[in-house]
Amino acid sequence: MTDSYTYKYPRPALTADCVIFGFDGQALKLLLIERGIEPYKGYWALPGGFMRMDETIDECARRELMEETGIRDIYIEQFRVFSTTDRDPRGRVVTVAFVALVRPEAYRIAAGDDANNAMWFDSNELPPLAFDHEAIIKAAHEHLREILRVRPIAFNLLDKVFTIDELRRVYEAINNTTYDRRNFSRKVMQSGMIVDADACNDDDACDDADACIISVTKECRSLKSATRHRRLFSFCDNKNPEDSDDGSTKDIFNF
User: Fold this and answer.
1) What is the enclosing helix (H) or strand (E) of 205?
2) What distance in Å separates the CA atoms of residue 206 and residue 212, rounded to the nearest whole number?
3) Of 33, 46, 165, 225, which one has the fewest beta carbons inside 10 Å?
4) Residue 35's CB: how many other CB atoms inside 10 A?
5) Looking at residue 210, what is its pLDDT?
6) Phi and psi for 34 in degrees, rounded to 5?
7) pLDDT single digits (tens) 85-101
8) How far apart are CA 195 and CA 111, in angstroms?
């Protein structure tokens, strides 16, 4: 077909914004970039930018994240569209927001493109933000709390081996609350989603060894050696999907 079509109505621009959460062992962190151009030059913002004509919105999000922070090859997922008419002073701009959970120490942050700087901030102590990014971050945090109830996303913020106290602090940071240590430990142990780190050297320690996220590694053994006074665990998703209607972890961590 050689005919081309033009539309009579205005077409808004489309952007992608990435809400990247991390955890430093104590607090929930958020990755922000310092804008190097107007509008909001000098303000901090979420990594993101305009979608090109030859890419999908997912490709746009990954490209902008890499160009502005140096982070690449991570799993990100869409969680909401923001389309208020006055959200961008440059014109009618709709943004698709993405969310991801990473371990900050696993990535080297390097500002680039139109970003002057890129830094991790405590999610409870954010600087003045550009555009409507404060609302986007708030919505992302609420989304994070919701999916935490049904999916084991907290493990994405931890090392391959961890203590129950470290896992508890992740839950406390995301939910902005505190849990009784004994009750949390009991719930986690009953969940069947963690395995003793001794499983690093014992393939029979998990009912489904292929599902374990850990393997026999020097990293695991060195961590155990350095922390002999603590009991270490690893994530092991060996739950039977038939145990629930959707195979989720719903209500396991219902404190």
Assistant:
1) none
2) 7
3) 225
4) 20
5) 37
6) -90, 120
7) 999 999 999 999 999 99
8) 38
The tens digit of pLDDT for each residue in 27-52 reads 999 999 999 999 999 999 999 999 99
Rounded CA-CA distance 33/66 in Å is 12
Strand runs (DSSP E) across 12-125, as ranges?
13-23, 28-35, 44-45, 48-50, 77-82, 93-101, 115-122
pTM of the model: 0.80
Instruction: Please check whether residue 148 is in contact with residue 210, taking contact to mean a CB–CB distance below 8 angstroms.
Output: no
111-167: per-residue pLDDT in tens? Answer: 887 788 999 999 999 999 999 999 999 999 999 999 998 888 889 999 889 999 999
Question: How many other β-carbons are positioned within 10 Å of the β-carbon of residue 242?
Answer: 7
Strands (E), 129-225: 194-196
List, in order, residues 6 or more apart from 47 with CB less than 8 Å away. 17, 18, 20, 31, 32, 33, 64, 65, 68, 69, 71, 115, 118
Q: Cα separation of 70 and 115, whole Å?
A: 11
The pair of structure tokens assigned to 52 is: 């090109």
